[in-house]
Amino acid sequence: MAGAELSVVPKQFTQIKEPELMLEKVLEEEQKEDGVCRVKGHPGSAELEAGSTHGALQANIQEEELELVLATPEDNEKHIVTLQSVHFTSEDGALQELGWLEEGQVGVQPAGSGLPSLVWLGEGSQQSLHQCVAISIQEEVYSMPELERLQFQVLEENATPPGEDSRSAVSLAGSTESIKLDTGQKEEQLLVEGGLSEKAEEQFFLVEARPGEEGRDEIVLTISNFTVDEPETHPAAGEAPVEKADETHSQKKTKEVKRTFQCDICVFTSSRMSSFNRHMKTHTSEKPHVCHLCLKAFRTVTLLRNHINTHTGTRPYKCGDCDMAFVTSGELVRHRRYKHTHEKPFKCSMCKYASVEASKLKRHIRSHTGERPFQCPLCSYASKDTYKLKRHMRTHSGVHLRNLHTYKAAEMKCRYCSATFHERYALIQHQKTHKNEKRFKCEHCSYACKQERHMTVHVRTHTGEKPFACLSCDKCFRQKQLLNVHLKKYHDTNFIPTVYECPRCGKGFSRWNNMKRHSEKCDSEQEKPAPSEKGRRVKKRKPAVPKEAATTRYLVVNGAEAAAEETALMSRAPSLGGLVPIDLGEAAAGSEDLDEDLTCEMILAVMDK
DNA sequence: AGTTCTTGCGCCCTCTGCTGGTATCGC
DNA sequence: AGCGATACCAGCAGAGGGCGCAAGAACT
Q1: Where in chain A is the domain with CATH 3.30.160.60?
Q2: pLDDT digits (tens, 9 = 90+) for A299-353
Q3: Is the C-beta atom of A495 closer than 7 angstroms to strand B?
Q4: Of all helices (H) and strands (E), which one includes residue A347?
Q5: Checking DSSP bridges between strand A261-262 and strand A508-509, what pairing results, if any?
Q6: Weakest mean pLDDT among A440-449, A541-550, A563-572
Q7: Fold of A448-491
Q8: Is the minimum distance from the CB of A262 to strand C below 7 Å?
């Protein structure tokens, strides 16, 4: 922005911490015939001009007023303007002394005015199609938490109705999150005044608050015009901006005065009154549409109709290629993609994966990024989706047994039979009886198993089938995993076999249990065990990796609740050394929950500590 | 205002690979 | 009988398929 000169308190870009601090200034706009929008502002005297590939940008600052002139380009396409800031310096105090800044304000200050520039105007960034304003605020002026409520005055394009300022209120829920800044509250007021018709549309702004450059105590607010960020015209990262194919459409879009209906109860916003009204019903218990068959009530006719279809079995959308039928057309389309057309519109950019649904692609991408947003509250495990976490939580079920014993008023039905239960534990125990059913029985022997795949493998022991052949030698295997082990062991030159060494004699073994068995014998040969240890039953537990001196250490606490608390704490902080909390009192009482060898381990651990 | 299309979330399932424990086999 | 290797079994977790449903967006 060479040559730009402004000296003004540009309150059009003023942010005010609280509503009562809001400037009483109202922007005056003049709609000029040549499509130039003049915005009258505040004292100053300077003039800024900049050429732009999209059009001319002018900011005329005269005494007592600032005029920012946005000259539309020849093709009337909305040009892209980027305002970038420089930082408050130690001289911001001087600015306040000069009356340019009220305390807690951020002003726009032209470069080259002899005072430190606060914001300069730049032509459209080549990297972005967003119309945006970036403002940096020194943290001494605002801290992130203070940015809870800001008031912006935004220069509107010439379509803004005269007399309507575009001040917008925004609440920053999170200091580092992108949020929508909208004019909804203002419009709500205008609606009361009858100033806007319902057809008027909102203008979205995206406000991002983030810390500034490293080493600088600043906050950078970037205010982006949402309306120009059309997905169809938004270039992918790394691509040069492309001219909009439908300029008339985009121009219309950007020139419309938009508004938003914002829910006071949740974060919901909508551009349509009808959607807003429908949403608001979700916050009420009003369910005027009652099913005549079961008296269940619903908010909308459509929901009731879908519900009644579950009674009647009505599924109007029938698949032409199979017997499936669905309540909605969308379900049918999705079904056809899955089962018949195999159309997968959502393609992964990192691999060949494609999916029918966007959510599946989103889930898939986590396998590339390693993102695991779903953290287990009891251990370090984190999952990529909710179901896996839910499945994982079953492994903690023995710790949380008491939670399973709450009486539930609603009956819980067994998924395998017609039995019902009011206690979750009883249900789970019952379902286990189904789970342990060995439904798959061998035709050739008495072997039975729970899973079909195991039966498939077992049957091969009768047929002699070994479908997994090694390509490097003639060996064949009944199981793929055995082939894999073989390949690693005999044909993979990089394969380093795991060796478990006997801690007594150092002899190596390929399997931990063999080493363990050897070690016990080696132990008894080399040193006679103490009488107390002689009768000790060896507790079986999973060997740690590596297998060197895998001794479990116990943290002895007093009371079961304390033990549970410590367990939770330890699981969240593996760095604490993997201590296993255990209730000494319960152990001493000889609880059935603690076997004798565990007690011995515990005592050893106490001695160790 | 009603209807239809689209989107997103959640739930549950299967398939698969890996790993560990146990049983069995062969030397 | 002892020992090592192999076979078998089972559980957990990763990945993905398929569907139900609510709600937003678009259309009539």
Answers
A1: 448-491
A2: 666 666 766 666 666 778 888 888 888 888 888 888 988 888 888 888 888 888 8
A3: no
A4: strand A346-347
A5: unpaired
A6: A541-550
A7: Double Stranded RNA Binding Domain (3.30.160)
A8: no
